[in-house]
Amino acid sequence: MSKYSLDYLDHLESEAIHIFREVAGQFERPALLFSGGKDSITLVQLALKAFRPGKFPFPLVHIDTGHNFPEALEYRDQLAKTLGEKLIVRNVEDTIKAKHLTEPKGKFASRNALQTYTLLDTIEEFKFDACIGGARRDEEKARAKERIFSVRDEFGQWDPKLQRPELWNTYNGRITKGENVRVFPISNWTELDVWNYIRREKIELPSIYFSHEREVIDHEGQLVAVSDFIKLDDTDKVLRKKVRYRTVGDMTCTAAVESHASNIDDIISEITATKTSERGETRIDDKVSEAAMEDRKKNGYF
Asked: Which of 89, 103, 119, 242 sits 20 to 30 Å CA-CA off 130?
């Protein structure tokens, strides 16, 4: 008798689709956090496979810091329009004004941590009981130990010591009033898996993921794009380089990598050869401390 086995990408896809359908079955008001980055774009593709020809059982939600790459925002709006799905955008700028929060200072004044306030307000506004995100275990050590169904308390906080066991494909989404669950369908994927899936599914991406010329400065070995959000000083030397982005966050906290990879095959070749994770190579905000990501998650971050 012949044995049937799934290709590894089919296996990852099947697992993610199962998780999406578990969310739809277990929660009353889920949402898909969508930024226009490659991981959230992959989530949208998986949601299409999970729920089409029907509509998504959740809206797309973007917490906009005001420091995003314009290419990602343009892609975000166009994709939502093309799919005919509801897109909810809430702005960190409005939260800063409403809550009288202190605007971050410094050369790379990032609003990244302030997204937490806006996210929690948005969860409260729409009574979301589950938020689906594109975090992966291979990105960073705090994410490596977080469950696929990650329960947050009534304050949006994550306690690593109170995580639930996840045996086989069983996910426990039961929560009490005020609690929220963050769900990560591609938690078991790697950066290379995502790119192989993008290639297989012929998924379009924002242009910043591919090699292009951009004005940058060299900050401690990282190439940071020149923008209105970064305060240049006399010591900065503006360079024009061929770069691409491995991950897309704010312009104030995301560095580019020097690259001539102009297509997906070339990008996959680069990733296969690299010895540094995407966040390790490009995220300035993760270098604040050894536990920067975990500290943000404990306070309610994505």
From this structure: 103
Cα 106 from Cα 89, distance rounded (Å): 27
Using one digit for the tens of pLDDT, what is the confidence trace for 220-235? 888 999 988 888 888 8
- Rounded average pLDDT over 72-92: 96
Pairing of strands 212-219, 180-183: unpaired
Position 289 pLDDT exceeds 50? no
Whole-angstrom distance, CA of residue 157 vs CA of residue 224:
31
Strand partners, 181: 130, 151
Query: Residue 10 to residues 6, 168, 197, 241: CA-CA distances in angstroms?
Result: 6, 17, 9, 37
What pLDDT is attached to residue 4?
A: 62
**CATH classification number, 8-192+291-298, choose in 2.60.120.620, 3.40.50.620, 3.30.1050.10, 3.40.50.1220:** 3.40.50.620
Pick from 297, 253, 254, 301: which is nearest to 142 by CA?
Answer: 297
pLDDT digit string, tens, across residues 86-129: 999 999 999 999 999 888 887 887 888 889 999 999 999 999 99
- pTM of the predicted model, to two decimals? 0.90
Q: How far apart are the first and last CA of the chain?
A: 46
What DSSP character marks residue 254? Answer: B
| 8 A C-beta contact, residue 114 and residue 76 | no
Any idea what the Cα angle at residue 274 is, between residues 270 and 280, rounded to 5°?
120
250/130 Cα distance (integer angstroms): 24
Amino acid letter, residue 132: I
Per-residue model confidence (pLDDT) at position 286 = 54
Residue 150: strand pairing partners: 182
